[in-house]
Fold this protein.
Amino acid sequence: MPCKLTLRGQLSIQHSPQTAYLDHRLAYNPIVYPVKKILSLLAALILMMVVRVSAQNIETGVKAFEIGDYKAAMAELDKVLAEPGKLKEKSLARAHYYRALSRMTFVRKAHSNLEATQMKQVRDLTVGAYEDMIAAKKNDIDTKMAADIESGNKRLIELLLELGRGANGIAQDPNKKAADKKESYQDLILYGGPIVGINKFHYMGYLFLANGQIGLGDSVNALKNYHFADDWFFKSAPKDGDLDIAYTYIQIARMEWAMHKNFDVAIKALDEGRKCLDAEHRKIETLGAHTPTQKAALSIKHHDVGLDLDRAYSDLRLASGK
């Protein structure tokens, strides 16, 4: 094969007709050419194996959940979801859904036995369950899991209500330290937000938010959320009655007067609170599945809340001079 030096001193090969034919044969050599195709097939095969292994890990997590080993279920699904890019949307939805169930069931069974120092785990797992339910719904593109996700969200709301009521009890306990109360106000906001995120018509989510905000000194947003609780109570009120809703109207009345000196709105709120209290007590008497002892206790509570409403009327009239 003839060669010559170029002007830059580089060696250049001059192709003859015979060498050109040889170059053509090399370019399409049946041994050399398929290498790229083989590499592509290997990459596809490896990806299929990764997806299959991830799917098997999801099923391992699901089985752990079903037998009640919630820690193992969370650990297995944590590993799967650490690399979400390896999963198809359908598998992502399933993994997030079962991790959410594992998290909320673990919290519900364990939180009453945990020390105060372990409550951070309760908060993290509960918020994580909420985020998982959002991710499950987002990735359920064919909506085949819609009914399961709706059911899971109802279970999550039950847990959030349980935790929120516990935080509310601490916030109202005069024997608790200021630091504990502050933490409970933060918890009320932490648990109230997801309730509203799941169901924007759930009055208890707004009440938790408002109680937490007023405890932390955010009166403006607290008043807004008390009004939201009033707006949506009729849509999400429990069938067996809720006497505590009357305190929502007491708070609205006090805050409307303190912040805006709006006597008429404050009086209207107390009037609404009285009507609501009596209506809820009638529900307890006629619809509630309460024992006679429970009904007697609730009747006493109805009387006590009524006295608190009377005091609120008196305080408002005294403050306004009307």
